[in-house]
């Protein structure tokens, strides 16, 4: 039998590479599309291919989607800048283009990566998928809402199934925003450690997220969104404290108000001070159970940080802080 082909946009990224390996194990021929082919060796290791190209360019997108049975759209613009035009071009127009190209190329299914940030910054505890969405006058939040709307316009159950995933704060080896960036800022003495003990970090270890995606695909529950987090109520101080211990440091904590006075971007502080959680009851109903807890996920991440030289090897002083 001919293998089915899966295309991953943003395929060279942190999540894309991890997902590519899982789909290859599941029997797919895996193709990635990314602006750079720097991760080509990752794909070559399991017989896949990574194409260098831009999803906003028609020829590149057509080449990538041609013959794909499944398209997983992870590519997105992230960040805290106020570039509304840029966010909309990538997250909304780009998502619409990917869905349309997937249909033209013969795909029967699209997995669209949205975000729990569709609920904004101030949402009720245990926010569910049928709860209110809030663009929060923030380009990332708003364009993620709009991205769901545009891809679901292409949904045709049984002909072109669109699956919408709303991941929490994804972390693990290779993660930029929740691993590399805080570690680099801590090393430079620039990390914003907030004293707010009520702030929560709604993390999801990358392999748990991928488990969730595979479960949703197997369920055939297309046309509706699913939150995916680790289902934990973890204080932000606890989450980022793992990196402090890896570095053998105990950083001073300041209030959110003080951080803003010192020039920290207000949007960044809003990300760090979310104090409610997202419900995963819906995906749990399909059999999802996060298999990797925070301690294990952080230990795996720590090994990667040491192997890459981003944090030093453990010393007795660091062990004392652990």
Q: Give the termini distance in whole angstroms.
A: 52 Å
For the secondary structure, the number of strands is 11
Relevant CATH superfamily of the domain at 5-170 and 203-228 = NAD(P)-binding Rossmann-like Domain
Label the overall shape: globular
Q: What order do the SSEs take from the amino end to the carboxyl end, as H and E?
A: EHEHEHEHEHEEHEEHEEHHHHHH
Structural overview:
The chain starts with a strand and ends with a helix. Strand 2 (29-34), helix 2 (40-44) and strand 3 form a beta-alpha-beta unit. The chain is an alpha/beta fold and 322 residues long. The protein has a domain at 5-170 and 203-228: Rossmann fold. It has 13 helices and eleven strands. The protein is globular. The protein has a seven-stranded parallel β-sheet with strand order 3-2-1-4-5-6-10, sandwiched between helices. It has a two-stranded parallel sheet with strand order 7-9. The chain has helices at residues 14-25, 40-44, 58-65, 84-105, 139-152, 176-187, 206-219, 236-247, 256-261, 266-272, 281-284, 294-307, 316-321, and strands at 5-9, 29-34, 49-52, 70-73, 109-113, 161-167, 169-171, 200-201, 203-205, 225-228, 234-235.
